[in-house]
Amino acid sequence: MSTPLITVEGLSKAYRIGLKDEIPDTFMGALTGWLQSPLRNLNRLRRLNTFHKEVATARSAGNRSQQGSMAAPDDGGLSTDIETDIVWALQDISFEINQGEVVGVIGHNGAGKSTLLKVLSRITDPTTGRAVIRGRVSSLLEVGTGFHAELTGRENVYMNGTILGMTKREIDRKFDDIVEFSGVNKFLDTPVKRYSSGMKVRLAFAVAAHLDPEILIIDEVLAVGDAGFQRKCIGKMQDVAQSGRTVLFVSHNAVALRSLCQRGILLQGGRSVMDGPLPEVLDFYLSSLNSVAAQEDLATRTDRGGKGDFRVQAIEIRDEQDVAINTVATGQPTTVAVQISDSVNCPQCALRVYDDKGHFITQFDSRLNSLEDDLPNVSTDVIRCSVPEVLLMPGHYRVDVELFAEGVRQDQVKAACAIEVISGRLHGRPLKDRNNLPSIAHPHRWVYQTPCQKEA
Ligand SMILES: Nc1ncnc2c1ncn2[C@@H]1O[C@H](COP(=O)(O)OP(=O)(O)OP(=O)(O)O)[C@@H](O)[C@H]1O
Predict the structure, then answer these.
(1) Adjacency order of strands within the sheet including 79-81
(2) Helices 197-210 & 227-242, crossing angle to 10 degrees?
(3) Using alpha carbons only, what angle is made at residue 343 by residues 339 and 349, rounded to the nearest 5 degrees?
(4) N or C end: fewer C-beta atoms under 10 angstroms in the chain?
(5) Domain interval for residue 162
(6) Residues 395 and 316 in one domain
(7) In a domain, 361, yes or no
């Protein structure tokens, strides 16, 4: 049997809460900082040393309490050691990936997906365990990473290629394809700092995918591009995969995962809880998402993103009489009330509706459809979205929520609430129950064209 391209053994990664930007988490990081600013970093290195001692203490405490595992609760939630403020972003992960495998890494917010890809891309070191990579890795993890802001698009393409170990001639050969794919032709000689985030992603993806990596690692970044560009990227990743390369792909997009990956690894609370054929892993993940939406109290959930100054406390579905309801009938006028943890100046909210297969069905985004009472300086802790007629067909849906204040994303929760839609009246007429209903009912009308109309 051939040697796997990636071997991960007992991999764990601990972070110390609150020191994200202050302290490097590797000795190499500390050393680089030292060279830049010796005095400040003397202090940093002392604290790094303390951090590593704390990690060792936490680990040995864990070994005492649960033989062979780390000092972390096994509750599927975020693993935080309260005494030392250590977050175990990854815990005891092991797997192998062979050449040509296309693997989707799946999980709730904060499950450890990005950390895993950062370790595999050598952006951060593991705290314990090891990851052996046998091949040239090209990764695209965050918008703009890997680009030097002051250099032009052209210069960045050459810099990235050189980092990947390619010769100038090799990059020259790929250059036109990269530029054509990215669509940033006109801005090639503009410094990347002037690019929009969409342009950066386009160029970064084009570079990562065209520079012949043996292993291509892509994080959620595709979410930034438009639907057309996303399709193009999926197509390109399929080409890369078909040419025998290995692809690791983090995404919440079920359609993209299904079309690209054969295998899925599901992370939960930093642990790998399922590794198998993608459809099975994805279905398990989606059903767990739906049950989280139906059962867990939104206010106390920790698997959320955003800055966190304000959080969404609760989401209620209300009927015409403003009474909270659990099920909605197709065609029913409905209001969604989003309760915020504090009074916020002009909050904005996005609700995204997915069906039980993870397909993105529709969205209600106050940033796109301006608020009816669009008054400046309104402070409120409840934002309401009224839907004159629910066009969802009977079935189970989940709603992801995002909350923004002054353009900053403050909260982001996947599967924040579940909606059960039952049969009702559509455009005034009773809905006939049938198998195989689509998810959405577009308003429409059928007429017979009379012969007379045909001639006209
Ligand atoms: N540099 C850091 N310092 C402290 N904690 C961190 C750091 N990076 C990640 N974490 C924490 O580690 C956990 C795993 O984070 P990670 O970003 O890997 O999750 P994720 O599955 O990629 O989440 P998302 O889907 O929201 O991007 C989270 O609780 C996160 O807050």
Answers:
(1) 79-81, 86-97, 6-16, 128-133
(2) 10
(3) 50
(4) N
(5) 88-289
(6) yes
(7) yes
Cα(126) to centroid of ligand 1, in Å? 14
330 in helix, strand or coil?
Answer: coil
Distance 125 CA to ligand 1 centre (A): 14
Instruction: Kindly report whether the global pTM for this prediction surpasses the value 0.80.
Output: no
Per the structure block, which two tokens stand in for 311? 């959080």
Question: Which protein residue's CA is at the shortest distance from atom 2 of ligand 1?
Answer: 20
39 part of a folded domain: no
Q: Are residues 278 and 317 in the same domain?
A: no
Q: Is 346 exposed, middle or buried, given 0-12, 13-18 or 19+ CB atoms closer than 10 A?
A: middle
> How many domains does the chain divide into?
2
**CA of 76 relative to ligand 1 center, distance in Å:** 15
By CB neighbour count within 10 A (0-12 exposed, 13-18 middle, 19+ buried), where does 415 fall?
Answer: buried
265 in a structural domain: yes
Q: Is 194 exposed, middle or buried (0-12, 13-18, 19+ CB in 10 A)?
A: exposed
Which ligand 1 atom is the nearest neighbour of the CA of 17?
Answer: 4
CA distances from 428 to 283, 366, 405, 448 (A): 35, 27, 38, 20
* CA nearest ligand 1 atom 3, residue: 20
Alpha carbons 64 and 315: distance in angstroms, whole number: 42
100, 175: one domain:
yes
Structure tokens at 425: 């009246």
Around ligand 1, the residues with Cβ closer than 6 Å are 15, 17, 20, 78, 87, 89, 107, 109-115, 305
Q: Whose CA is nearest to atom 24 of ligand 1?
A: 109
Residues 256 and 353 in one domain: no
Residue 46 belongs to some domain of the structure: no
